Amino acid sequence: MKRLVLIAGVLLCPLLVTQLLFAAGFFKIGEKAPGFQLTAITGEPVSLDAVKGKVVVLGLFHICDPCMMQGTNLQKVYEATQGKNVAVIGINSNGNSKKDVGEFLSAFPVKVTYPYLLDPGKVTDKLYGGGKFIPNVYVIDQQGVIKWQRVGNMDLAGADVILAEVEKLLTAGSSAM
Predict the structure, then answer these.
(1) DSSP code, position 30
(2) Who has greater pLDDT, 78 or 8?
(3) What counts of helices (H) and strands (E) characterise the chain?
(4) DSSP assignment string, 107-156
């Protein structure tokens, strides 16, 4: 039995290492955030360039329970940053229909009031490396550089953690003036 476990471990180890390296390629901290222009579910065009100069909290979501939990966290961040130089944006990066995304948003435990964008061509999924690793949350500084990223929900990307990262950038930005 021990030999079987050892053989299985040896065979699975390269697969696990490959998956971790693949996932690491999606972490883009220190890189310029790729630009996009999409339409919000409410019909307004939204682009990353339009919020340049602000700290941006960007969430990439599909239609799933972890995405609903993370989208709810983003709503808390949005409410806590009202009146500050912060933009919170959610994107359905899986190409789901407006109808499906609307139904998904209506099932949230809170009303989503931040811009929630549709991405029928899955452009942001490709640009930001979503796909298997969803939800994905990025915090982008005032110069458009990704300063923080987390995959998934859990405590690693809760509203308090995201807000702490946003506050660091707001403080750094105000001391640079």
Answers:
(1) T
(2) 78
(3) 5, 7
(4) TSSS---S-EEE-TT-HHHHHHT-TTS-SEEEEE-TTSBEEEEEESSTGG
